[in-house]
Each structure stands twice: as C-alpha cells, then as structure tokens.
Amino acid sequence: MTWNCPACNTQLRHSELEAKPRPGERYRCHICRLSLDFDPKTDRLVVAPFDSDQPSDRSVNERVRTLPQPYTAKPKPRHK
User: Fold this and answer.
1) pTM over the 0.70 mark
2) Which helix (H) or strand (E) holds 26?
3) I want to staple 48 with a disulfide (CB 3.0 to 4.6 A). Which of 2, 35, 53, 78 is the partner?
4) Cβ distance 42 to 36 under 8 Å?
5) CA-to-CA distance for 54 and 47, rounded, in angstroms?
C-alpha cells in the first residue's frame, strides 16, 4: 500500500516493514507539512484536527482582543 497525503497527493516516506499506518500514530507530509492520522474505517490517511478546532473553555470576552489606540497629544492651551 502506498501512503499518500490527502492534500497534495505526495507519496509519503515510511518504513518498508510497515504495510499500513498505525491507528493513533501521527504522521506528517514532508511537502505540505500537514499532520496526518490513519482512519481505519476508510483505510486512508486523513488530515489531523488542528489545535484551534478543539473547543475552548474561555468566554467570548477573554478571546476578544482590542488593538491599542494611537496616541494623540492634547493641544496645549495658548497664553494670551
């Protein structure tokens, strides 16, 4: 079985002793640098979920960041 990246279809380098990828093992495409997992149901490599795909416990307000406003100097009062 040849191991191909599902994104760029590049044949992945692997040990000739392994007939197919191991479930639970993380692989990486050396061309597009995607992390890949083996899906035993489809018998293919699939793109691993990104860390940002995981749900977060932070509230919406904690995730929102505001940009600092540019400094504007106040006009100095004129002496008469």
Assistant:
1) no
2) strand 26-28
3) 35
4) no
5) 15
